[in-house]
Amino acid sequence: MTALIQLENITKSFAGVHALTDVDFDLHAGEVHALVGENGAGKSTLMRVLGGEMRPNAGRTLIEGEEIRLAGPTDAIRRGISVIHQEMALAPDLSVAENIFLGALPQGINWPRLNERARALIERLGFDISPRTQVADLAVAHQQVVEIAKALSRDVKAIVFDEPTAVLASGDAERLLEIIKGLRAEGVGIVYISHRLDEIYKIADRITVMKDGQRVGTVTPASTPVEELIRMMVGRPLSQLFGDKPETAIGEEVLRIDGLTLPNGVRDVSFSIRRGEVVGLGGLVGSGRTEVARAIFGADRISGGTMLLKGAAYSPRSPRHAVKQGVGLVPEDRKSQGVVLDMEIRKNATMAKSGPITRAGFFKPSAERSVVERLIRSLRIKLGSMNDPVSSLSGGNQQKVVLAKWFNADPDLIILDEPTRGVDVGAKTEIYSLIHQLASAGKAVIVISSEHAELFGLCDRVLVMGEGRLRGELQPHEFKEEKLLTLSMTGHRQSGTEGRA
Amino acid sequence: MTDNAATINETPARSRFNFGKAFRQYGTVIIFVLLLIVAQEQSDAFLTERNVMNVLRQMSGIGVMAIGMLFVILTRGIDLSVGSIAALGSVSAAVLIQSYPLPVALLMAIGIGAACGLISGALIAFFRLPAFVITLAMMTAARGFALILSNGQPIMPGPAGAPLQAFGTSFSLGFPNPAVLMIGLFALAFIILNYSRFGRLVKAIGSNEEAVRLSGISVPWYVLSVYVISGALAAVAGVLITSRSGVGSASVGAGNELDVIAAVVIGGASLMGGRGGVINTFIGVMILGVIGNIMNLAGVPGYHQQVYLGVIIVVAVLIQNGSTLFRR
C-alpha cells in the first residue's frame, strides 16, 4: 500500500545550523500519526516542510507515490494538505462562512448557498455554529472547529494538527479528539503534534519521536510504555558546560509565593526562594513558567494568591514597582524585550538604574562611563566601543548587556527567562558562571529554561510546571530529564504506564 | 555635526565608510547645503541679511512647534493638534493680556496649550488610544475653542499688548527676537535630548517600548510628557506669531501641523520612532523655510509652490533613506 504522504531524507538548515537532518516520515490514509519530541526537536519545521511553507535543502516529498515539489502553502492546500497551526489563521472580523471559504470565494457570492455549505461542514463535525457569526465572537474551541471545517471544505486528504489542545479546556479537548477520530474513519490522514502524552496514547496509531532535528524512531503505542517513549525523547547524556557551582551560603527567604493564580491559566502556584539559592523553573513551553515570572515582576496582573518579598507583603503593580522593590527580570525574548537594539551599549546598561550617575535628571558622563566600564570588565562583554549600538554585538554579548543592566541595578531577586537562548556555547558557559556569581553575592536567582541540562547544571532545585500548575519539585538526586518530563506532562512523579491517566 | 558625532569619533577602528549610514547621519546637512547653493545661484537677493532674517523670523513658529513634534515622533507618536493649539495660544494670549500682567497672561496662554497636550497625552498614554485619532480630535476642538474665545474676530490686545509686539518686532544680538527664542529653545532641547535621563528614555521608548518597560520604567508618564511639551510649545509658537503681528487670531497656524511634521521628517526623524535629532530637525525647519523663500524670490506662483514642495519632501526623504536604497 502506498503511503498518502512520504517525506524522505528531509534536511533543512538555517544559517548553517541543521534544523532537520535526514528525516523520514510517512502518513497513511485513515491513520493518526503522532509526532512528539522536546521543544526545538524539529517537529514544527518538519510540518512546515510538509505544508509547503519551507523548502527543504535536500530530500524528497511524495504524495500518493508521486514525487512533487511544493511551491508554497497554497500548492500544498491544493494537493489536499492542510496545516492547523497553534495560532489560528482566521480573520477575526469576518464571518464563519467567509473564513471557511476564504481563498476559494467565487466571483459572485451567493450568500445563502455559501452559508448553507458552511453549516453542512460544521454539522459534519458535530457542532452547531451559525455561519454568520463573526469569528472574533467565538470561543477558542469553536474557532478550531472553523479551522477544521475550512480544511474539510477543500477536499482535504491530510490534516496536520500542531498542538491543537494546548489552547483548549479539557472538555473541549475531548471533543476535538472525537472529531479527529471521525476524520480518521472517513479516511483522512492525520498528523498530531502534542506534548500531552495521555492524548497521544488515546488517539495515535503510530508515534514518531524526534530529537535534535532527527527521527529517533517510529513506534506503536501498544508496544511502547510511556517511560520508554520519554527515554527516546530525552536521548543522550549531556556535556558538562556548567562549571563548578561555588558553595554559597543560603540566607533568609527573599520571596514566598502562596496560591498564585493568574487570568492566563496559571493556577495555585506556591513556592519560596532564599538568598544564595538558584531555583530552576522547568516544564514545557506554555506550562506557565514565563507567566509566573512576569507576574512576580509586575508585568502582568494576578487574579489570586499572595506574595511576600523580604518578609513584607508584595503586590507589584508594574515592573517599575518591582524594580524599586529589588526584583529584576532578564526576559525571554532578548531582542524585543531585553535590549533597545538601536541604542548604545552604554545607555542600555544603565537603563534600569541611573540614580547614582545622574544629577537633577542629567547624566554625569564620566560617572556613567566608569560604571559601564566596570560592568563590561566584570561581565567580560566583548565589544568595540560602549557607544556602539547593542545590535553590533553577538547574541551572547547582547545577553550580557541585559545581565549588565541588572548587575548594575543590583536587585535582591533576579529572574532569568531562557538566559542562554540563541547564545553560542562559549558565551553560555560564561553566562552560567555569572549566574553562580549572582548567587554567591547573596541574590536569590530563578532560572527558567527549556534546556533541562541547563537547569540541572545550574540549579539547587528545580520546580516543575505543567499546564499552569506547579507539578512538583526535583532535588539534585532526582535531576533526570525523564523525571522532569514525566512530572510536567503527566503530573506524576514516577514515570510509568499510570502516567497515561 | 550631529548628536552622534561623538559615537563615530570613538570608534575609528571599524569606520569602514558606509554610504547608507553617512546619508542617514548627514543627509539633512547635505540637502541644506545643496539648497543654499541653488538659492544663491537663483537670486542675488537670497543671501542678503534682510532676507536671511526674514526666513528665520518666518520660521520661528514652525521651528518651536517642530521641537515638540520631534519629542512626540521620537516616541513613535504624532501630534496633529499643534497648529490649532497655536491658534488657541494666540487668541488666549491676546485676550488675557487685557486683564492680567503680561508675564502672567503669557504663562496662562502657554498653560492652556500644555493642558491640551495633557488631555491628548493622558488618553494616548494611559488609555492606549491611537495618537493620530486623539490629536486629530484635539486639532478640531482646540481650533473650536480659539474661535469661541475670539468670536471669530481678530483680537487687538490694545495698549497692554504693546510690549509683546515690541518684543516680536525687534532684534537681540542682531537677530529677530522670535528667532533668538526659537534657537534658544532648540539649544535647550538639544541638551535635554542628549544629556538627560528624560531625553534618553524618550528615544528608547520609540525604539523598543517593551524593553524600557521591563527595565522598570513607567513608560506612560514619558509618553504623557511629550504631548504636554508639544502642547506647551505650540502655544508658545502661537504667542510668537501674535507678537509679530500684534493680533490674536483663531486662524493662526492653520495647516501648520503638516509643515511641522514635514520639517521633522526632512530632518531625518523616523515616524517609526527612536530616530531623530535636534540639530537635524532645526536644519529641516530651515530647509522648509529656504525652499519657500527661494520660490518666492524666483517668482514661482503660490499654487505651483505647493507641488514643488511635495516633490522636494519626497526627494529629501529618499536621500535620508539612502541606506535602504543602497542595500538593494
From TrEMBL, chain A:
A GO molecular function annotation here is: ATP hydrolysis activity
Q: Which residues form the signal peptide?
A: none
Q: Which residues form the ABC transporter domain?
A: 5-237, 249-492
Q: Which InterPro entries match?
A: AAA+_ATPase, ABC_carbohydrate_import_ATPase, ABC_transporter-like_ATP-bd, ABC_transporter-like_CS, P-loop_NTPase
Task: Give the protein name, as stated in the record.
Answer: ATP-binding cassette domain-containing protein
| Organism, scientific name | Jiella pacifica
Q: Which UniProt keywords apply?
A: ATP-binding, Cell membrane, Membrane, Nucleotide-binding, Repeat, Sugar transport, Translocase, Transport
Q: Where in the cell is it found?
A: Cell membrane
Question: Pfam families recorded for this chain?
Answer: ABC_tran
Indicate the family of this protein. Answer: Belongs to the ABC transporter superfamily.
Q: How does it sit in the membrane?
A: Peripheral membrane protein
Record keyword rRNA-binding present = no
Q: What cellular component terms from Gene Ontology apply here? A: plasma membrane
The organism's superkingdom is given as Bacteria
UniProtKB/TrEMBL annotation, chain B:
GO cellular component terms attached to this protein's record: plasma membrane
Q: Which Pfam families match?
A: BPD_transp_2
Could you tell me the membrane topology recorded for this protein? Multi-pass membrane protein
Question: TM spans, by residue?
Answer: 23-40, 55-73, 80-98, 104-124, 131-149, 179-198, 219-241, 278-295, 307-326
Q: Does the keyword Nucleus apply?
A: no
Q: What GO molecular function terms would the record report?
A: transmembrane transporter activity
Q: Which InterPro entries match?
A: ABC_transp_permease
Q: Keywords on this record?
A: Cell inner membrane, Cell membrane, Membrane, Transmembrane, Transmembrane helix, Transport
* UniProt cross-references to CDD domains, sorted A to Z: TM_PBP1_transp_AraH_like
Q: Which domain of life is it from?
A: Bacteria
Protein location? Cell membrane
**By what name is this protein known?**
ABC transporter permease
- Organism of origin: Jiella pacifica
Q: What is the lineage of its organism?
A: Bacteria, Pseudomonadati, Pseudomonadota, Alphaproteobacteria, Hyphomicrobiales
